[in-house]
Amino acid sequence: MEPNIEHLQQITRRNFLKSAGQFSLGAIALAGMLNRAASAGETLNPLAPRKPHYEPKIKRVRVPKLMGTPRQFAQYGKGGIWMSDAIPKLQDVADDLCVIKSMNTDQFNHTPAELLLFTGSPRQGHPSMGSWVTYGLGTENENLPGFVVLISSGVQPSGGPSLWGSGFLPSVFQGVQCRSKGDPILFVSDPPGMDRQMRRRTLDTLRAMNETQARELGHPETATRIAQYELAYRMQVSVPEVMDISREPKEVLDAYGAMPGQASFANNCLLARRLTEKGVRFVQLFDWGWDFHGTSEGEGIRDGLTKKCATMDKPVAALIRDLRQRGLLDETLIIWSGEFGRTPFREGRTAASKILGRDHYPDCFTVFLAGGGIKQGFSYGETDELGFSVARDKVHVHDLQATIMHLLGFDHEKLTYRFQGRDFRLTDVDGQIVKDILA
Description:
Elements: H1 3-10, H2 13-18, H3 25-44, E1 73-76, E2 81-84, H4 88-91, E3 97-104, H5 110-119, H6 129-137, E4 147-152, E5 176-178, H7 196-217, H8 220-242, H9 250-256, H10 265-277, E6 282-287, H11 303-325, E7 333-336, E8 341-342, E9 360-361, E10 365-371, E11 378-380, E12 382-383, E13 390-392, E14 395-396, H12 397-407, E15 417-419, E16 422-424
Helix pairs in contact: 7-8, 10-11
């Protein structure tokens, strides 16, 4: 507590009356002078040693040592974008990329950071970005979902289904998770003993019952239920076809590094192109395994990061080329991002290990974009020379979201949904369009 305030708190009526034995003008004057002198002494030296609340375990704090990158960086493309030697395929498409080096977030743990990035809030219960987009734009193909989610590396993201959930929007706008191995969508097939004709009759009966309930109660989720049953019926035919990458020519499979029948990020990148061709509005790919704390060989920023980058580098570069060759890149936006950055010093838990690792870091990180509406071969923003903080053109997560919505034709402040007495939006009460990256 500040010494002067602490002293003043002791000057109370009760303490004054307690000193009745010294109740004289002289004693009062002397006490006042002594107190002022003591307070003045404390004020003159605010850094004088003081005792803590209890006996301390340590006397000083160690500052971590900075750790430089083990990678080699060089500039690529006409815009001179700095890129690592761990992503040689992406170097070849540098002129298609827009790199934002000054991203900033409020969260440093996986789940709240992922929720903030994908839903605009670090807390569960808000609609995901894909749900906002399908709510605002609908779908171009009535036989496929407007919003599809693909997951690779065998692990769900920390934020779970909330990252593609509809939150307080009607559930018809939530993402549909598809698989690149096995049945594309769980539970979409007819159960044993039911053929397609019987399925149709069953759905017709359910539709009639739901329409009666909708007229009586007027609940919006009843209409959603009808739409979802009908979509599931149509998807039984359309989804297996679009998800069958064995139909692709060998040269396309080789370009992505895709293998039909397997589950991989490469397969999912190829599926993203196929879904985009068919009119799916929003395709969201999650790939686990980028948390390089250095706790094992696979999580080291030397060998572990190199191997992980190899699984991403080739298929992402192939996706950019493929969309460009098919005339789709100008009307498609690709966003590659994590939920936060990494520290410019070693992970504290593994400081004594031979394996190098870094911890979570929210203050600055990098994302890249490619496709329609943005500048190509362009870098935006800078950090300081140590990578501790943004030095120029900070871009908050809400700013990125506002820019994405702008490119889709939305005013992010006007695409709202009324819930619990107020109008909500993806960007909450923040977000500015990053105009300098727009083409």
